[in-house]
Specification:
Number of strands: 2
Strand content: under 5%
Strand order of the largest sheet: 1-2
Shape: globular
Order of helices and strands: HHHEHHHEHH
Structural class: mainly alpha
Number of helices: 8
Helix content: over 70%
Length: 170
């Protein structure tokens, strides 16, 4: 593949920091069952003039390893961090433990994003977009059926991604 991708991690951090994006991501994750790392990756792909490969089974298969990582490592860390949150009010000594778990969760997400970036660089599950990547349509297809309010959050993130996108081709 001859694409010139920017690094996904800094892009993801910038996008996540934009107004309303982090809250939207958490709701989409908790209420819609969506993977935030995949969502940020799809926005990054669009910024780099790429999209999901067709047919669907090609990108679904390519994401298998990353999805296994998320289920096996990231999600359990998130569950432990959330379990500890109310306990830290009663037992402040647990704050340090929760902080370490939060850092481990962030590192697990960074690993997931690194794996997603590698897929893109290798051309696995992705293809160049025909003209301007239609991020809204890609996200809607990827997300499946969502309620209207969750779809609005997804489109808010797409809008923020387009506003944040930097020219990335040489």
């Amino acid at each position: 593949m001859t694409a010139h991708f920017t690094e996904l991690w800094p892009f993801a951090l910038r996008l996540y920091a934009r107004e309303g994006v982090s809250a939207a991501c958490v709701r989409l994750q908790d209420e819609g069952g969506l993977d935030v790392c995949e969502l940020l990756w799809l926005c990054w792909l669009a910024a780099n003039h790429h999209t999901l490969a067709e047919p669907d089974n090609e990108w679904q298969e390519a994401l298998g390893d990353v999805r296994h990582w998320q289920r096996s490592v990231t999600v359990p860390l998130r569950q432990q961090r959330r379990l500890l949150k109310p306990l830290t009010e009663q037992m402040p000594r647990l704050v340090t433990l929760r902080t370490h778990i939060k850092q481990a969760e962030l590192e697990a997400e960074r690993e997931a994003l690194t794996r997603l970036e590698t897929l893109a660089r290798q051309g696995n599950g992705v293809r160049p977009a025909n003209g301007t990547a239609d991020l809204d349509a890609t996200l809607a297809h990827w997300a499946g059926s969502l309620s209207a309010d969750l779809m609005a959050l997804l489109l808010h993130i797409a809008h923020a991604a387009r506003a944040d996108a930097e020219p990335t081709e040489a």
